[in-house]
Amino acid sequence: MASLARPLAVVTGASSGIGADLARELAKDGYDLVLVARRAAPMQALADEIKASGASATVLACDLSKAGAAKALIGEIEAQGLAIDVLVNAAGLGGSGRFDQSDPVRLAEMLQVNVVALTELTRLLLPGMVSRGRGKILLVASTAAFQPGPQMAVYSASKAYVLSFGEAITYELRDTGVHVTTLCPGPTATGFARIAGIEGVPLFNGPAHVMTAAEVAHLGYQGLKANRSVVVAGRLNALMAMSGRVAPHSLSLAIGNYLMSHQPPSSGSTGHTPPS
How many other β-carbons are positioned within 10 Å of the β-carbon of residue 273? Predict the structure, then answer.
């Protein structure tokens, strides 16, 4: 018999990629879902899929790149009398290229989604979790969080914020019954690379294993269940993340620039061409 009080999870970025697969992981594990993203149609298809497993799913179209969107979203959830047990901050925007040549509007939207909305959603939902003495939050960062990222300077910095923020509040909440996990994927086969304009860079076309969104979501969700503070998806990604912290700064910057650059280094050709 289905429970009348199934736990409830909010998943942002739920229209595709890692966010959608995290929603599937939660649904399989007994959660009902509130799905949040800009595009309603793919979320509705996911909601129909999730319902087949016995979970319910509410679709809320919301553009988190707009100021005030996070507060409005939580207001809508609270108006429905919903108590949130799990928050998954999986929404994210990326962009590539030299900082001084980047679109200022895109940069502002990136910061709004990756930093501001993530922080606001966490702040708005945490007090209820703390008062109930239970709850979980998953923040989706990136292996880009472990070192500065030339050619993706703002994106990498925003993910460094997420990692630092997640580790700090994990410590603050250690005696509350609320647990925070920061998931750091490496290159992943989603629409992110195409939208960010980095499909043709060595990071996605080199020897490194490009994981599927389902693989990343499974590892992230298992880490969340185990109350792990930080989960780097994949052993090679974990090694690369660690090397970025211990390698000489000049070397890690040069490697990062090469991995994210469409142009071959001056010493020779990479064999990679820019995406069309």
Answer: 10
Question: Is the separation of the CB atoms in 85 and 8 below 8 Å?
Answer: yes
In single-letter form, the type of residue at position 125 comes to L
**pTM here?**
0.84
Phi/psi for 61 (5° steps) reads -75, 125
pLDDT tens, the chain, 276 aa long: 344 579 999 999 999 999 999 999 999 999 999 999 999 999 999 999 999 889 999 999 999 999 999 999 999 999 988 899 999 999 999 888 899 999 999 999 999 999 999 999 999 999 999 999 999 999 999 999 998 889 899 999 999 999 999 999 999 999 999 999 999 998 888 765 555 555 555 455 554 568 899 999 999 999 999 999 999 998 887 877 776 666 666 666 665 655 556 544 433 332 222 222
- Parallel, antiparallel, or unpaired: how do β-strands 57-61 and 32-37 relate? parallel
Structure tokens belonging to residue 205:
């076309």
CA distance 264 to 262: 7
What positions carry a catalytic annotation? Answer: 155
Nearest to 19 by CA among 30, 10, 28: 10
Mutual angle of helices 17-28 and 213-225, in 10-degree steps: 50
Token pair of 10 as six digits:
């909010």
